[in-house]
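Case study 2.
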Amino acid sequence: MNQAWQAKWIWIDAPERTPNVYVEARTVFAVGAGVRSASLRITANQQYQLFVNGVGIGAGPSPADQAWKYYDTYDVRGALKEGTNCIAVVAYCFGTDEIVTGQRQGPGGLLAQLDLDTEEGRRTVATDETWRCRRSPRWVPSVSRMHLWSGFKEIYLADREDEWERAEYDDAAWARANVVAEALQPDSPWPRLLPREIPFLRADAVKPENIVRLEENYGSIEGAERMLATRKSALASPPGTAATASEPAAAGESRGMEIDAGAPGSLPGVVFDFGAVKVGYPELVVHAPEGGVLQLWYGESLELTLIDTFILKQGANRLSPFGRRAFRYAKLSAQATPAPIEIERFDMRFVRYPFAETGAFACSDPLLNRIWEIGKYTTEVNSQDHLEDCPYREQALWVVDAVIMAKVIYSAFGDTALVRKSLLQSARIQNADGSIPGTGPERNAFLLPDFNAYWFLGAYEYWRYSGDDAFVSEVWESVEKLVGWFRAQEDEDGLFAKADRDHWWCFVDWADYIDKRDRVTAVSCLYHKLLNKAAAMAEARGEAGFAAECRERSARLRESIRRLLWIPDKRLFADCRTDEGLSDSVTFQTNFIAAWSEVMTDEEAEHFLREHFLKGTCPELKGAFFYHIVLEVLFDRGYTMEALRTIRAYWGEMVARGATTWWETFDPSTPHCTIPSPYQGNTPTYLSDHIPVSHCHGWGASPTYALTQRLLGIDVSELSTGEFDFRPAFGDVTWASGEVPTAYGPIRAEWRLAADGTADAALEYPDRLRLRAPTLTRASEERNNGVAIVRGKLARAVEGDADASGNRAGEQAGKESIA
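Prediction:
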């Protein structure tokens, strides 16, 4: 089959930067008998829906930078017929640069090519000037935006549907397509075309779980409960209260919901609860004898926003928004229905990355189990065509969100493709000076110095987990340029200088009390950690000179941080240093990063944890993102009880307030009933009502990997070596069990405390793997069908944060152990 590109980028004749454009494009062609293969490649800027002979084939492509455009490939042999056939595409272009994150950019364009192999020979059908195009009459173009981080609302005119997707449709009145570029044209907006790097997303039909309220508003509603997954005997109870009873629908019973909005001024509606944030496309089948208006309002909380309006045609309507939605709650309301309408079906096509395997975790504490599951689910919901920071507000590829979710994926799903793609997309938009934007996947001006370090640390962790040397080769030039960018920011002492310059965003954490002027300690510490890991990667590649330079700079930098940013009498690091001297500000964030980056000595880290963190001498931590560093430091240093207390206090309080996905940020000190909102004081954007608050943020999922790695004890972070660790930390948990999927097969473990203070443990793992440092004493081992099964005892370690002697959890484990 010919895989060369003959297709041309096409669009309608419209002024540049025309916003909110839906284009319908089509061509007809003859097909003889005996089709051996039919491969259709397609992409668009920014989105497409593909039909062949009126049948929906797929939608896409993966969001990407204009210079690295993805295309999708479909086998459409089964959709073709002998005789006249039709390819029809709806393509969409956002068309404006008025968006906070700098995404959805570039002009409109559609590229498609069908390569056919038949008994009569090979032929190609491709987009060119012979295609017919029109601006779709079905969507109202002049509509308001959802908000400044995302796209436009939709007003859909169902009465303008005319079956244009079918071969027999007469398109003679349509204009010919405008050719805007050749495929792979170097000076076009899209000089590269990349095949899809991950599988197509999984899609499942899901129904609402509860009814929050009925709003008759001078109209009437009957049968709303028929829209639910299971019949509810009453309206939903508030989160955290007992669930309502449910029963299946009776066999043969009507599934319809009737809404009558015929009375003047009536606006009846129903608020549905889907149980947790879902991502995808609501779908409705509506029977409207005399037409009417149907509207969908959405919210991650019960602060609902009107997004989709459907102007119904008389008769049957099959409705779904073109754009993707993310919500937990949805209100369906109707108005101006001269005759009652029947909703035969209301559900949604729930989409996310198709992880092939799913791990497990359970322990004696039900709250920890719930926290683990919510983190896994939050990561899954944010695993789309790339790792998203939040599926509602931005759908963007923020670096730190991806790095944290990657750790969850290694422990809970055992997948590498989505993480690899996300890291590569960030590398592809690297700036000329070597820095990497803090978000993507499209090039933009967001420059966060600490996020540059996190991108490399995420790439290093991916490599150590996957052993993907091809990935390292692909990004190595980016790594060298990134290290060069950091080097260019050094002052005469090697510190990272001027982190607060204009147009930069020195993040560190969502905390306005951190002093981030000039030589920011946290950024220099992250630079130190980056240099050490870059040296290790370089040594593995045989880049001895580069490795030596990184280690030399790392040692110099550590000495400078300790000499110039340390406060001797407090035995802590200051937040920053300016030309006037050390800052008076001392925070947990700065000192946790210093410990995490191994700038602190062991003795200094112990002093910091015991005399400052445990005694609360610094402002309280409130950011879900930064807690991943806190948990890693606590678990690494044996403070298991304190780590578990932190998880229960922070994430457990979110659960108590009804969270089913993790919130972007959270202040447990606010009144118990509060949830994230622009009008509550627990967000960094307090009282900025134009900034949507995220209730589904992947950067808060760190307890999921921490509980698997540290409490259960299965650590696969160095899986590329063919080895893994099993080092459980008990805390106050009496038993734990779980499973971690890997490319070699699953690793399963369970342990249970015994009366003598030890724990009985069992471990199963593929015998192609090795247990790095066996921790089981008096162990027995057997092999069965490629699986190693080890049973034995785990020594009970003393918890560091509760023991004045200095012994910490984990110090006892492994003594006198055998393989």
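Confidence is low (pLDDT under 50) at residues 237-246, 798-807, 809-819.
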